[in-house]
Design a protein that fits this description.
There is one protein chain. Helices cover 66% and strands 9% of the residues. The chain is mainly α and 140 residues long. The chain has a single domain, classed as 23S rRNA-intervening sequence (de novo design (two linked rop proteins)). Strands 1-2 form a two-stranded antiparallel sheet. The protein is elongated. The chain starts with a strand and ends with a helix.
């Protein structure tokens, strides 16, 4: 749904209705879940070996930060196509997180007791993102 504003002298400005996705990215469940996951990733990566500070720790944190950042940036855009694009990037980063958590477990940097809840959280975030992406696609 779009709103049109006549600006005078025949100019028209079209705005994407925010009723579809809320008034703020902070209203989105996907953003909230992504923020929770970032917080947990930062907590858990404090325990990784110091030699991984510029390797796996940095990669994992950057991927985790990328998810809510892309959700927020996409929601702030004025087209569903752009929002979809940013949600796709967020989904990619969430899968990257799952992969990196598994690598950390395989290298025995994290125990299964640490990785299981993180992987569950990441999977749930992925499902929420998939639902949001599908809802944006269906109205595009």
């Amino acid at each position: 749904m779009f709103r049109c504003h006549i600006l005078g002298k025949g100019s028209v400005r079209v705005f994407l209705s925010r009723t579809l996705v809320g008034n703020s990215y902070k209203d989105l469940i996907a953003w909230r879940k992504a923020m929770d996951l970032v917080t947990e990733i930062y907590r858990v990566t404090r325990t990784l070996p110091r030699e991984e500070m510029y390797g796996l720790t940095n990669q994992l944190r950057r991927a985790a930060v990328s998810v809510p950042s892309n959700i927020a940036e996409g929601q702030a855009r004025f087209s569903k196509k752009e929002f979809h694009h940013f949600l796709s990037h967020a989904r990619g980063s969430s899968v990257e997180i799952e992969t990196q958590i598994t690598i950390a477990e395989n290298l025995e940097y994290l125990s299964p007791q640490q990785t299981r809840p993180l992987l569950n959280q990441a999977a749930e975030l992925g499902r929420v993102l998939n639902g949001l992406i599908a809802s944006i696609k269906s109205i595009a």
